[in-house]
Structure formats: C-alpha cells, structure tokens
Design goal:
Shape: globular
Strand content: 15-25%
Helix content: 25-40%
Length: about 400
C-alpha cells in the first residue's frame, strides 16, 4: 500500500509566490541562475543554487555553497517570504501548459516504502549528483525539490481531489513561460483522512522524475536514524517531499541527443556506417521530429534525415525495444563510440521543450557534429520497465511542465 502523510508545509507568502517559486535546480546552469537572481532577489534559486550569491570561481559542490543555501533559507523564513503552515496538510498542485492539465497531490512519501520497492525506480543515479542532494538536504534541514511520483489512475482518488479543489486556491498565477500554477491547501481532517485511506489501496507508485532526490532522502534518513536511535518513525526525516500524479495525466516529451564529433569519420563514412543498421532517407521538407515509435530524426551538415531500424537490430524486451536503446545500441555506441552516455562528455541531451531549432542551432554552431531527434517514451513503457525491475537508459524521459521549487517545502 502507498503510505503518504500530510505535513506542515513551508511555502511562499501569497503576495510573493510568483516571484519566489523557481524552476528546478537541475534544468539550468549556474550562469543562467545568476541571470535570474540578478533581476529577482526573491527567487528560490538563491536556496537551490546558492552559488549564485558567491563568486563564480567557487565550486558548486563546495561546503560554503551548502552553508549559503542554509543561510538563504533562514533569511527567506525570517523575512516571511516563506511561511510554515501550522496544520498538517496535503496540497493540490495544478499545472496547465497549453491544452495539457495535470493535477498532483503534494504529500510526504515513505522512505521505507522506497527502500522495499513499493515506490519503484527505473533509473540509476550518479554518485556526484546524489551526494549533492545529500549535502543540500543535510545543510538546509529541508527537502526543497519534490520527487515526481505517478500511480495507475483511480477514479476514487480523482473524485477526492476534485472535491478538495472546490475550495479557493492559495496561489493561482502564470509564469513567464505561459504555464499556469495553482495550489490548494487541504487541511480539513475528514478530507485528509480520506486521501490517506484511498492511497493505501494503491499497491505501487513509480518515480517519474527525481531519482537523485529520493535516493538522497533515503541516505539522509539513514544518517538521522543513526543519530537518533530512539526514532519512532513519525519524524519528518522518515519521509520525502513528493508530488503524486495519476499516470494518465503525465506528459512526456522527447529527450534528444547531440554529439560533438563523428569519431574521426567523414560525413559520407558516417552515413555509410549508419546505413548498416538503419534505413536512411532524406526527410521531407519541414519534417524534423519523429511521428511514431522506432523512428528517428538526424541532423547532419544542415540537412535532416529519417532513420528507421532494420529488422532484427533490436530485442523485444521492455528495455531493448525502447527507442533510446535502439539508438544507443545500433549507432551511438558502435558508430560514435559513446559507450556510456551517463559519463561520456561527447554527448549532450536536449529536452524536447527546446524544440528542433535548438538541435539545429547546436550543430550549425560547430560545437556539435550531429543531432538526433527522438519519439517520446510513453508512461506505459516507463511503468513496464519499473515493474520488470529493469533500468531505463539515461535521459529517456523529459517531463513537462516542470514542477516549480518552493511551491511547498518539506522541513525535516
């Protein structure tokens, strides 16, 4: 069963919410974050990417960065930019991007359920990124970014959430990117109890995004349990901040690839090698993004091509038939020498929200030699891989819209 708990959330003062909330720390670099905080000193990036308040020469993983994050969080609380609710509450977070609407429940999820696999993962974590989150949580005594969870949709929960949304939202604003964000506080004891009970009927939840945050929360919990051998399980460090969505509201975009060089091959030699495993054709005018699974776009020397894998070039298991696996196993690894896309610095990944023009720009700039556009992985594929206990290749999914940090913070 899914064990979730309400908590006393720390969240922006309503008049400042639009200025305080920020994109997640991991979708931008330090310089991009500095440009934002230079214009907006209320941005929560001063907590999640606290290097913005230090000299650019400071390593982003230096101890002083985490100390600065803790000081800035304390400042936000002292100046009442952030205010903590006095009642244990659930929160409903609604986002609208174009025609797409997704409605998630903000709750504290169980570290123990994560440990035993009732909250399923589908990605490996990188030690450096995981340690970064451990250090940030330890310094701030807070989980500032939510884990994005999903579950197989249930009508009963949909109805409970809809009933709670009849209340007046505490926030309702649209960010510069056109995405609408609405937050409701649920502190009615009967509604809270009903939501908890309904989730106990769910066997499995899945991590959609946030593997490093959930792994870090577990490590911090283990450390705090060791420091507090009389822990009861009721302490907030036994749980982690999550926003939980039904699977049929998830929107996954393509996650594309660009590679710096052709591994010493001329473009003609490269195309010849690609044709060993793929049918390669010039793309019709204006066609850049694949329109179906097992199709790929490729941008090379100012031209778009369509790639289709030849029969027998990929396995039929849940991981082997993923488009990201097909491209990796038949092209990126054997032709371009990208053996481990998690660590190889020659390959970079571009979220589909940036569009095909970003792939063209990167290649046309000369910084990259070739780009590949992908067909988006489906949520059903993700859940099938997690159910099989398998691991998806890195950078398989790009979820939109992104959850804003600081809509609700979980204090330990």
């Amino acid at each position: 069963m899914a064990i979730i708990k309400p908590f006393q959330g720390l969240r922006p003062a309503p008049a400042l919410a639009e200025k305080v909330v920020s994109l997640p720390y991991d979708v931008m670099d330090s310089e991009e974050a500095r440009q934002i905080t230079d214009k907006n000193k209320d941005s929560f990036l001063r907590v999640t990417k606290a290097e913005v308040d230090l000299a650019p020469s400071v390593d982003v993983h230096a101890k002083e960065v985490y100390e600065k994050a803790a000081k800035n969080l304390a400042e936000f609380i002292k100046t009442k930019r952030l205010i903590q609710d006095q009642e244990n509450s659930f929160y409903i977070y609604r986002q609208k991007m174009g025609e797409h609407v997704q409605i998630g429940l903000v709750a504290a999820a169980s570290v123990d359920e994560y440990k035993i696999g009732s909250i399923k993962k589908h990605e490996l974590t990188r030690p450096d990124k995981e340690q970064d989150r451990v250090d940030h949580i330890t310094a701030t005594k807070a989980q500032t970014g939510a884990v994005f969870l999903t579950y197989k949709a249930k009508q009963e929960i949909n109805e409970l959430i809809a009933e709670c949304m009849k209340a007046v939202p505490v926030y309702d604003f649209t960010t510069e990117d056109g995405i609408a964000h609405t937050l409701y506080v649920v502190n009615n004891s009967e509604q809270v109890a009903a939501i908890e009970a309904a989730f106990k009927e769910i066997d499995i939840m899945y991590i959609a995004d946030g593997h490093h945050r959930s792994a870090a929360a577990m490590r911090v919990c283990d450390a705090m349990r060791q420091d507090s051998p009389e822990f009861t399980g009721a302490e907030e460090f036994n749980r982690f901040l999550a926003v939980i969505f039904p699977h049929d509201m998830m929107y996954i975009m393509d996650y594309n690839r660009v590679v710096q060089d052709l591994k010493g091959l001329t473009p003609a030699e490269f195309l010849a090698k690609v044709e060993e495993k793929f049918t390669v054709t010039k793309a019709p005018a204006g066609v850049k993004r694949p329109t179906a699974t097992h199709m790929f776009g490729m941008y090379l020397q100012g031209a778009w091509y369509q790639l289709s894998p030849k029969s027998g070039t990929f396995a039929g298991d849940p991981v082997g038939r993923l488009d990201v696996s097909i491209l990796q196993n038949n092209l990126l690894s054997p032709v371009l020498g990208i053996k481990d896309p998690r660590t190889d610095k020659r390959i970079h990944f571009v979220g589909g929200i940036r569009g095909m023009q970003e792939l063209e720009r990167l290649v046309d700039s000369g910084k990259f030699a070739v780009a590949f556009s992908m067909f988006a992985t489906s949520i059903e594929e993700l859940m099938a891989i997690a159910d099989a206990g398998e691991i998806m290749p890195p950078k398989s999914t790009w979820f939109e819209p992104k959850l804003r940090d600081a809509m609700v913070v979980h204090l330990l």
